[in-house]
Structures are given as structure tokens and as C-alpha cells.
Write a structure and sequence with these properties.
By secondary structure, this protein is mainly β. It contains two helices and 19 strands. The protein has an eight-stranded antiparallel beta sheet, with helices on one face. Strands 1, 2, 3, 4, 5, 12 and 16 form a seven-stranded antiparallel beta sheet that branches. Strands 9-10 form a two-stranded antiparallel sheet. The protein is globular. The mean pLDDT is 94.
Length: 243
């Protein structure tokens, strides 16, 4: 595959699992349901390794940044007179006195200007075999088969466009990729609530860090990245996101 530079990859996660996303809007590395599981998306290593892409139809690259003091990623794509952004994150917040960290990746798509044309394609594989997962399409979801557990993409996007056709993004849309139990609530309400809760959680976490006066923003970003290398079940620090 084409070389991917470290500075062109962004990390999201919730101390249960993690994902690496490139500037083209593709999840290029993600092992589910844990860091040491086999990859469902592995195109970082091999073009046939599976990916999950939300991208402009012309293939242009985006500008990535984290929402301040969080591990919530925002990528802005601009093509001519139109632009849109994706907000990518793994939910993490306190719920009933415990840390809620479901094995879910949430992707929110928002038009910013004009009528951006985009493509959406979710093509997971069966681990190191790199065999594409079979899929079954429902009214608002695609279920991927042949994996160790249920993997499902639930969305309020029109599924007829999935993987094949570009379409105009005319309003804020939502995608949840879930391992295990799929979401049962209204997908838009769920994503927006999880986004607010996750942003608040990370900002609260930063507030409790013991920060030096010098290079404070750099230290905060490093601390947030290091936290995503922690597997909460054991407290272990993993050596690398790429297993």
C-alpha cells in the first residue's frame, strides 16, 4: 500500500479498543473487541486488509484536529465550493458510577458549505485471513457475518449508496459501528448524547491531570494519547496501537 506517515494518522479510542484514521477519512487499523484481537480493518498494512471510509467523492484529503482537550477527532474536507466535516470518537463517560466504554465507533457527518458529495464504505475483514466479511442489509443497518461476534453498522444514511455511489450530504448524519449488542435507541439522539458526554468526560479528565506550566497544550495532548494506550480491564499499557 501507499506509505502512510505517522503524522497523517489520528487515534481514537476509549481504553477498550482503538482505531487509526487517516486524512482520507478511512479507518485503516482497528482490532475488535480488544487491542489484542485480530483486525477488522487493517489496510494500514495491506490494501486488502479492510477499511471503513467516509470521504469526499473526489478523494481529496482532510485537515484533522482534536476537539480541544478531548480524544474526539474532527476532520474537515473541502472540495471546490463545498465542505463537510466528520466527527469520530469512541464513547467513554461515567454511567451509574462506572466507566461506560462500549465497543462502538461513532462517525458523525456534517455539511458545512455547499452540497458536498461523499462516499461511505464499510468493508471489514475476518482478521488475519483478510477474507471480506459477508453482509446482510436491513432497513437501517448492515450486519457483517463470519466474525467472532455481531458486527453491525447502524445509520440514518440511505444504505442504497453504501460502497457504490456518491451522494449529496444535505444534513447532519450519523453512523454507529458496534461489536456485540447493537444500539436500540434513535441513532441521531444516541450519537449526539454520546458526543456531549464523551467531550465532557475527557475535559474533566484533563482538569484532574497534574500539568506543568510550560508546554501545557503539548503535555495535555500527549497525556490524552497515552491514556488511549491503557487497557482499562487490567491497567496494562499496550506497547503499540498496531498490536
Amino acid at each position: 500500500p501507499a506509505t502512510m506517515l505517522l503524522e497523517e494518522l489520528a487515534l481514537v479510542g476509549n481504553c477498550q479498543y482503538s482505531a487509526l484514521i487517516n486524512r482520507s477519512g478511512s479507518v485503516v487499523w482497528c482490532c475488535l473487541p480488544r487491542f489484542d484481537s485480530e483486525p477488522v480493518f487493517g489496510s494500514l498494512l495491506d490494501e486488502s486488509g479492510g477499511s471503513f471510509s467516509v470521504a469526499p467523492a473526489d478523494g481529496s484529503q482532510g485537515e484533522m484536529r482534536y476537539i480541544e482537550n478531548t480524544n474526539v477527532l474532527e476532520t474537515t474536507f473541502t472540495s471546490g465550493e463545498s465542505s463537510f466535516r466528520t466527527i469520530d470518537f469512541a464513547p467513554r463517560f461515567m454511567h451509574h458510577g462506572r466507566t461506560f466504554r462500549p465497543t462502538q465507533l461513532i462517525r458523525i457527518l456534517e455539511p458545512l458549505r455547499g452540497s458536498p458529495r461523499i462516499t461511505v464504505s464499510c468493508e471489514p475483514v475476518r482478521g488475519w485471513s483478510k477474507k471480506p466479511a459477508d453482509h446482510r442489509t436491513g432497513s437501517h443497518h448492515i450486519e457483517f457475518l463470519g466474525l467472532e461476534s455481531n458486527l453491525r453498522m447502524t445509520t440514518d444514511l440511505p444504505l442504497s449508496y453504501h460502497g457504490k455511489f456518491a451522494f449529496d450530504l444535505t444534513q447532519r448524519r450519523h453512523i454507529v459501528l458496534s461489536w456485540g449488542a447493537p444500539p436500540q435507541d434513535d441513532i441521531a439522539l444516541l450519537c449526539e448524547r454520546y458526543l456531549l458526554e464523551t467531550v465532557a468526560h475527557w475535559r474533566r479528565w484533563v482538569k484532574h491531570c497534574n500539568l506543568p506550566p510550560l508546554y501545557q497544550q503539548d503535555v495535555i495532548r500527549s497525556a490524552l494519547a497515552l491514556k488511549l494506550h491503557c487497557f482499562e480491564d487490567t491497567g496494562a499499557i499496550i506497547a503499540a496501537m498496531t498490536t
